[in-house]
Amino acid sequence: MAKRRKRGEGSVHLRKDGRWEGRVVVGYDEKNLPITKNVLAKTKTACLDKLKALQETCSGQATEKLQPDMTFGEWLDFWYQNYSKPRLRPKSQLDYENSIYRHIIPALGKIPLSRLTANDLQQFYAQIKKNGRLIRTQVYGDGLSDRMVRACHTRCLTALDCAVADGLIRINPAADCKLPGQTLKDMNLLTREEMQRFLIQAKEEGYYELFLLELATGLRRGEVLALQWDDLDFEAGALHIQRQVYRASGELVVSAPKTKAALRTIVLPSALVGVLEEYHQGVNSRWMFPSPVKVDSPLDPATVRKRLQTILEHAGCKRVRFHDLRHLFVTTALENGMDVKTLSTIIGHVSAKTTLNIYTHVTDAMRQTAAAKIDRGIGKCEPPDGHGEGLPTQTPSPSPKTPFEPYRGKIRKSGTGCVTQINDHLWEGKFSPKWPDGKKHSRSVYASTETECEEKLADLIREMKTEIAEAKRLASEGKWAEAMALAGQKKARGTRKAV
């Protein structure tokens, strides 16, 4: 009979591939389920040595975890590093670390875990609500938002629940704390006329397909920017949402959505499919909306956010967030009779309850409209004063299309190219002359300032004009192959990165 290992020493077994595997418990998650680590080796002796070294590495943490007199800051740090961080995405890690290491630990970290009280936590929440903001106080005020206060409470509550499960404290002092109410931001929606002007201006600035798709589907910003052409079935009109893009620690990250509900398929209107099919012909990338600067990369969410505000300003529309375009889609869908369950599936909510909680104002108006229709249809009476106020008694006629000339900026002289601001730190200069084959071949330069971009563009124009003259000379001598080869080679290396 094999010798039984002592409790806490881990387990060792021979795998089917001939290697030995050792596994030991190094901690527990929020549900008090064990977290294990493993080692592999060719022999059992080597595996035992590796397993012992792993246990010694983790022993300090295990000892620290079992200390009854540790401070709340020590426990919170241990809980985050061992229980929470391994299962969090990079962006969520930044959110946790911001609340834990910049707010909670500096204020409560020195209090012994066993002596932390509900009053300590309540005073902390009141303090950060009043003057807890560390940056940009001139813009947002001295206090943290209700959402941030609730986030700090959630971290404390979950960490202390884990401490109770591990037997370090008897009760959770955060369980009975009172928090600021959870308020939803007012939705700032575009009117029908503003939406028309917005799409006309977006077409002028090269973002028509992106924002038209957003208004027709209500996708999250990270979802629409992470779309690839393989995700769209042109024949069936089915769009598969299976990834998202976001920025974390200064880098673009592409990953699967956070919830299973976000993995979904949306059937697009045939007119929208036709627009995307035509747009596809001019895009040489696997990404549906590729970056104009980086090779094989989607558009940066920050770039789209800034471009949205520029288009709204040029179109004379009020300032709205990208997420407000999602709200606009949902509100329009509800007002046009789509049931909440179907809509919840389309926009990727976990349940219809989430949709109802967010769009209560829309569903309340729908209930009032339904009640008014019942009164008129069954009771043969008009709604009393004060009830159904503002509701139309008949369907209003659609507003005529507003004449709108898109903003085109300063008109440049012919032959001087064009300069466009991509974001706060990047400008693009483009020159698209005709070559001897009668076709336009574009090249671009990039710079961090408008002045530098103009200088680079002037150099590019002089260089291209020289090359075109040489191509014309070769063409006049009947050397079309050499002339076109010159144009093709120059075009291939024409895109230049900013310094």
Describe the structure.
By secondary structure, the protein is mainly α. The protein has 17 helices and 11 strands. The protein has helices at 44-65, 72-84, 90-108, 118-131, 137-140, 146-165, 192-204, 208-217, 221-225, 270-280, 301-315, 322-335, 340-347, 352-358, 360-377, 450-476, 480-492, and strands at residues 11-14, 20-28, 34-41, 232-233, 238-241, 244-248, 251-255, 264-267, 418-423, 426-431, 443-447. Strand 1 and strand 2 form a beta hairpin. The longest helix has 27 residues, at 450-476. The protein starts with 10 loop residues before the first strand and ends in a 7-residue tail after the last helix. The model is unreliable at 383-399 and 490-499 (pLDDT under 50).
Brief description of this entry?
With 499 residues, the protein is mainly α. The protein has helices spanning 44-65, 72-84, 90-108, 118-131, 137-140, 146-165, 192-204, 208-217, 221-225, 270-280, 301-315, 322-335, 340-347, 352-358, 360-377, 450-476, 480-492, and strands at residues 11-14, 20-28, 34-41, 232-233, 238-241, 244-248, 251-255, 264-267, 418-423, 426-431, 443-447.
